[in-house]
Specification:
The protein is α+β, with helices and mostly antiparallel strands and about 110 residues long. Helix content is about 40%, strand content about 35%. The protein contains one helix and four strands. The protein is rod-shaped, with a radius of gyration of 21 Å. The termini are far apart.
C-alpha cells in the first residue's frame, strides 16, 4: 500500500512538471515571435525618412502563440534630423512574456 502511495505521488509530480514545461515552451515560442515582430516594426519605421515619422504614441493589439499582446510604438523627435523609436509588446492581462526594443531614425546629414 505504501509503495502505491509513493508511486502515485511520483506520477502526480511528473504531471505537474510536464504542465509547467508546456507553459514554458509556449512562452518560449511567444518570446521568439515577439522578438521578430518588434524587430520588423522597428526596421520598417527606421527605414522611413525622419520627416515622415509622426511624433507620439500608437497602441494596437496583436496575437502571438495564442496570447494577446498590446503593442506600443513611441516616436520621439530628438533633433531636426534624429528621432528615437521605441516598440514594446506587453501581454494583455499580465500573463506571458514581453519584449521591447529601441532604435533611431535619422535624416541624411
Amino acid at each position: 500500500m505504501g509503495a502505491l502511495v509513493i508511486f502515485s505521488l511520483g506520477v502526480l509530480m511528473v504531471l505537474q512538471v510536464s504542465g509547467a514545461l508546456g507553459t514554458q515552451m509556449r512562452y518560449a515560442g511567444a518570446r521568439s515571435q515577439l522578438a521578430v515582430l518588434v524587430g520588423e516594426r522597428l526596421d520598417s519605421l527606421s527605414a522611413l525618412p525622419v520627416t515622415s515619422l509622426t511624433a507620439g504614441t500608437t497602441v494596437d493589439t496583436l496575437t502571438a502563440e495564442g496570447l494577446d499582446f498590446e503593442r506600443t510604438v513611441i516616436i520621439t523627435p530628438l533633433t531636426a534630423v534624429l528621432a528615437r523609436i521605441e516598440v514594446s509588446l506587453i501581454p494583455v492581462g499580465g500573463a506571458g512574456p514581453s519584449h521591447s526594443a529601441t532604435s533611431y531614425a535619422s535624416a541624411p546629414w
